[in-house]
Amino acid sequence: MSDIATNGGAKPEAEELVEIEEILQHLEDISFVAHRDTKEALPAIRPFGATSARRWIETARDLFFHDRESGKSFMRHSARLAEHMQTVELWLEQAARFKEWVNSNYALEGFMAQADRVYDAWGEAGEREWAEIGLRWCARSLPDARAYFETDFEKLAGGRGIDGLRALIEPAETLFDERGLTLDAYLEGAPIARNLVGDQGLLSWARRGADLLKAGRSRGEAYFRLESDESLKLLLEALPGFRPRMHGRFLRLVLMAWLDADIPLADSSWKPGEGRPMLETDGRRLFMPAVMDSREEAIVATQHAAAHLAFDTYAHSEVERLFARAGAEHPPLDDKSRITWRPLFAPFEARMFRFQVLFDLAEDLRVNARLAPRIPNFLPRLVALAEVHGRPEGVAGVYFDFALKAHQALLRDEPQDPRLARVLEPDADVVTAWAVGEELFADEAFPEITIEDRAEAYLPGLSLNQSLPVYPQRKRDGSLADFRDHEAHDEHKFEHQKQEEQPQQAPEQAQKDPDADIQTPQQETSGTGGRIGTGIPQPAQVAKRAAPYTPKKDGIPYPEWDYREQRYISDWVNLYERVLDDEDPERAATILSENADTLKRLTRGLEMQRPMRLAPLRKQLDGDELDTEAVIDYIADKKAGLSPKAFIYRRRAVQHRDTAVLMLADMSTSIMARHPGGQGKIVDRVREGMMLFAEAIEKVGDPYAISGFASKQRDQVNYYWLKDFNEDLNDTVRARIAGVSGRLASRMGAGIRHSLEAFRRSSAQRRLLLILSDGRPADYDDGGDQRYLHEDTRMAMKEAVDAGVHPFCITLDPSGSEYLPAIFGPGHYTIIDHVDELPRRLPEIYLRLRQ
Amino acid sequence: MKNLINRIRGVERDVIEKPGDAGGAPFYKPQGDEIEIFQAAYSKRLPVMLKGPTGCGKTRFLEHVAHTLGQPLVTVSCHEDLTSSDLVGRFLLEGEETVWQDGPLTRSVKEGAICYLDEIVEARTDTTVVIHPLTDHRRQLPLDKKSQIIDAHEDFMLVISYNPGYQTVLKDLKPSTKQRFVGIHFDYPAEDVEREIVAKESGGLDADRVEKLVAAGRKARALKDHGLEEATSTRALAYAGELMQAGLSPRVACRAAMIAPITDDPELIQALEEIFDAHFPESEAA
Lengths: 851, 286
Ligand SMILES: Nc1ncnc2c1ncn2[C@@H]1O[C@H](COP(=O)(O)OP(=O)(O)O)[C@@H](O)[C@H]1O
Ligand SMILES: [Mg+2]
Description:
heterodimer, A: 851 residues, alpha/beta, Rossmann fold, eight-stranded mixed β-sheet, 52% helix, flat, B: 286 residues, 2 domains, five-stranded parallel β-sheet, 12 helices, 9 strands, binds adenosine-5'-diphosphate, binds magnesium ion
């Protein structure tokens, strides 16, 4: 095995043939499988010449010696590649390069399995680049290379050939170097994301994910699987169309005006890449997809959905009649008291979707006809939308046209298809529509329709009527007044329920059509298992892959500013008010006795500092200046011969309790550290500082509060009340202060925003927010992008100022001057160099500020 | 048109309007038995409180009944800064002299007019105090500054208006004040009545448009309390009708008379537009 031989210099044919035989012999001695597979493939290789054959068998042998699995993959695919590509040298050289890495066998298998198809599609140059990109990934990371070669090349290309593939992979290459992003994770969502955000948007989409991946594996992976809010939000931004969720109030107002109903709107689980977004209802709320084609469609869709509610598509009594008619009993309500129609559809077996579309068509026409007189432009609008939309291709077009024609006839008062005419009669109800659906079902002019085509069969704004299990409704006969009266009040509760449901929903289901997992419609119909037609989320069917990451949402939501997008992301942060239960009364006592002197000195100074505010009082007997209006009245009255009392002054009166202060302490882990140049830990001084602060302000008499915050990613910001405004400074409060310790990170913006809410409860005219910190705002999920939370904190500061709160930051961070001016503005912070000074300085600073 | 502009500008009418002989009573379409109640109260000179949302016809009603009764009417629109002196009168300096000038309430009391204090809750509470002695059997107005008490003219009558729900709870009238009045309840008129009013007030808008306008206005009313503090009033409908008569397209007229004045909230504006546009399709815009 000389170097020359391996590198393949051509030799006389006879020599080559001998060498081939020798290698075969060698393989036979070593491995039965290797010998057999080589012999099997060899005849397909020989036609390309003895040299190629010799080089091929050398490569096979070397790969086999390098890694048995690699060798076997190579041998197994060779015959096919040779035949399809009509060349050997190209791919064998490429395959040989996998020897450079240990454990490259999976990547090689992926390469061998696809190379011929790539060559076929993109020619030699394309195949070379495809292989080259993958080999570069081998050098970076073998699991990533494996993911690359195992992913169908067409998927990577997104229909745009090698250019598409290159554009898809480039961001991953950049981010691998920059942030260690794995291609494996990236490829989960990138092909879909690319369709939505385009090549240019891909890098920033992925960078965000890379940051999250660094912060936490499951969270980052959920991002790339497009399962987390983080990625969905970014992707949705890029989608064209109307965003119903941003116009929720408008849509509600419209329903309110037309139907006198206040129907709660909620977010549907639709995600980009899941086909046509449609509005759904569970009988209590309307679930809006994140994006719809147009504003018109969103209006029509909400009005139509409300029509279903008003005209009793989901009335309990009607559902019961449907079941009675089918000679069945309806299945028990699920654990949320919702009902499923599933068993009703089951008898249609494989043709279930066809029936569903036809039934919906009849029922939609029925409720639309009832709604039309109430909303003068509803029908014209629906018909116009459908006409613009145009007939969809394929079988769905037949249904679409039929529905459109029916609505056109309704609008123009033209004769209807006699079968449909029945749902237009005044006494028609959902049972009538069902019967009409059955009649239409018997008409073979309606072609078979698959689940994939189903959505296209609906007119714009109309949607699957039974996509969710529904809360059975009372009969309304057109009046939705109960929504205004009670349902709306329960909205909060409902939202809560929805959130509880989420973790139960397997990601596979959440992503796909609710009916996509149906194999046979005859499968069990008891209403408690699987999902047919009506899509009950089933906790039993859990994720195939890692558990989905569901950000917590049960706390208080706050927005956060994203400087990269220059906008607020609403409900981004989830904050909890927590009680700090590490009370330490003994330490409290120690702190007080050790600082008794300082306290005494402070108190003396404070006696002279009682708060004063001068507010003008009008028409006073005594004061600093004249009240002009009062003077004129006085003179006139006097001249008129009256003897008015001289209430003619304005006076500035003393008013107490006019500044409220909230001290907000950063309670992140870093305060547990020792401070250079100080005694003990930072937290010791923080406790003392808070204690003196509390005692001092108590003397002054201002309303005050003390709180702290600590965070663990955006969905868990904890806000601890040490002393609320309305609490007295008692031993419990002191013990709480003494029990303060550091934990987690510091998402400062959220802490500030929540403090502003607390200020809203205070009536003081001057409101001071004192922030005590020991370092930069930071959190686990900021991915090392310091600027992100800086900018958010800066915006939170602005919000504070807008809310009439004066923020001021006291920091122990010696490098604070690097970032504090940008966040708080010059003059709105102070740096305490010696931590031991903190306890004394805190009250001082406050008193200076409040003057 | 001049009347229209004056009304839009809310010109105060605190002059005593002698009922004009020419032209007859201002048009008022009764909603119920309000005219009988008023006449009964008038015959006993009992003070009357007109309750109801703005723009539902309270002022017009009063103008109408004052005219039919042949009574002069003094209207004072109350506002936050209105003091008791503004109602009763004050001394003015004229050269070396001081001159007492009667306020509108005093003039009405002396001359026997109907005095209408519109939106009384808007005024300071101390002003409402001066009306107390006028509302009971004494029918007297004390002029503290002149140390005088004036007995009301036998034709004098006090009428206040009051828009429940409009003001905050804080500013609600004291029960002791309320109970001194005969209350007449007003609301936006029934649909057919409202159509008749709009047709008349707009100066002959065609029936089709009147019908749509009124239908749309009634839908818009549903949005009250969802950001709309003031519902679309009969007055606003009448304006919109007048604007259409003046040549504006229905959509523009609706925006000008019924959306722009009552809200700046973008979503509310869109929702209102949605309602008016639905009744007046684009094709009719010209
Ligand atoms: N019943 C009615 N008859 C005639 N016009 C009415 C009636 N109700 C309302 N209007 C119209 O509405 C306008 C506003 O009414 P107005 O009396 O000023 O309301 P209010 O005093 O209740 O605020 C009137 O100028 C008139 O055009
Ligand atoms: Mg429908």
